[in-house]
Amino acid sequence: MEDFTYENLGICYWNGSIGPFNVGLVGTGSMLKVMLDIIYNETFREFLPEMRLAAISNADPAKKLPEDCETCPVYRDYAEMLAAHPEINLVIEITGEREISSGLRRTLPDSVALLDHRDIIFLCGLHDMAVVKGNYMASLDHQRTLIQSIIDEIREDIFLLDKSGNIQDLNRTVWQRAGVTRKELLGQPCWKAARLRDGSCFCNQLDPVCPFHKTLLSGKKEESMVTRVNGSGLLQYYRLYAYPIFDMRGNMSHIMVMHRDITERTRREKYQQQQDKFAIIGEISTYLAHEIRNPLYAVGGFANALLRSPKLDTQEREKVQIIVDETKRLDKLLTNMLNFVRPSHGPEGTVDIVAVCRDVAELMDVGYGRQGYNIEVQAGEHLPSVLGDADSLKQCLVNILKNSIEAMPEGGDITLDAAMDGGEVVLSIIDRGKGMNETELDRAFNPFYSTKDEGNGLGLPLIKKIVEEAGGSVTLASKPGKGTTVTLRLQPALDVDLAAKAAEADF
């Protein structure tokens, strides 16, 4: 048998055949304001059918009527009121007098309903509940608006997800960066809304490393750190947090996920870690230079002397040559390490960076131009000189170009682009090689990290050290299969004459 419901019967008691009530009020006691509130306040339409005040009778002549009913017809008694207003189909008696209540029950026709002062006690309770609800809803709306405003001002991306990973709510930062309205994202999988700071996609599916999955299983707060490469090929670091949300019964109903961009903080931490490594390397290098280099020179000298001996046969000469080559390689490694940790006194002068770029391009073209490599220099007009040492910057560019050439074994184009940006001279070395993955980008500036079989891992760290000691900075942007861009941001040199004139003017 079908369950009994009002929907099955097709009946809604007061929204069915019963139309609006035309009310006749009998009396003007303390209940008048309550009844007027019930009749005129739209809040009560949620609980009661529509009511219209037609007339008032039996008013207390000593009391002034409220403004809401000053234009309402007022009659001496209810008999006069009913005769003048046949449309009245509901009489509400609020005098509290039994004689009037009894008289109404005897004289009212069947077409007119009656609520006397005893019945309207229930309306009073309903009125109080509606008032409390109104106050509660107003307070709730205020708190909701306040909380939403606070959440919208948070720079981190915040998602409220159901247990399937679909968006139930999110803060303004997310939908503005996604370029759509908040409403369009509700109900969508979270990965459709998540974006990096430049607007590129954070992920293209519900990422298995997202702590959302762990929280779903553990019911506890979880977090993880992930890396992403943005649309420009720059490596970004994010800390992801997942927080369980429980309902009144203690069951997990939602999960809040937050994305926090920690790129700058991570770079600062890595910089400090590198400085600590440099200090250790400096101590080791000093020890190596003292303890290893002198015996190494002796070994190399004896090996060279043996190599010149006519008594060696071919096989013995090959073995001695290996000793000579290896001692040279070890000496070069020691030299690189000492150069890497040798303290610098800052930029030693000014450098015409465009001239340096052209010199290096011409130098590299001699060795690699016939092998299918085209090195082009593009420079903006009137670029200033930069702070630094010309030979050091030239060596930096040579090392970067060698890396680019090794990344393009079949040849290709390499561009050196120099321009002004934000008060700095920006030099970008752009290749179209095999590119770098996230792990390689993350470790590229770590000393002794190398993807080459014979590399010592000091090339990029040394470049970074030289540029930073001149007041600049180095960044890498790369994507697998799409090439790499090494960007040097260099400090422009102040014109000496202008600086002197400025100093004199200040004096």
From TrEMBL:
EC id: 2.7.13.3
Pfam families: HATPase_c, HisKA, PAS_9
Classification via PROSITE patterns: HIS_KIN, PAC, PAS
CDD domains the UniProt entry points to: HisKA (cd00082)
Keyword match Glycoprotein: no
Keyword line: ATP-binding, Kinase, Nucleotide-binding, Phosphoprotein, Transferase, Two-component regulatory system
Domain PAS: 143-188
SUPFAM superfamilies: ATPase domain of HSP90 chaperone/DNA topoisomerase II/histidine kinase (SSF55874), Homodimeric domain of signal transducing histidine kinase (SSF47384), PYP-like sensor domain (PAS domain) (SSF55785)
Histidine kinase domain boundaries: 287-494
Known catalytic reactions: ATP + protein L-histidine = ADP + protein N-phospho-L-histidine
Matches recorded under InterPro entries: HATPase_C_sf, HATPase_dom, His_kinase_dom, HisK_dim/P_dom, HisK_dim/P_sf, PAS, PAS-assoc_C, PAS-like_dom_sf
Entry GO MF terms: ATP binding; phosphorelay sensor kinase activity
PAC domain: residues covered: 220-274
The protein's name: histidine kinase
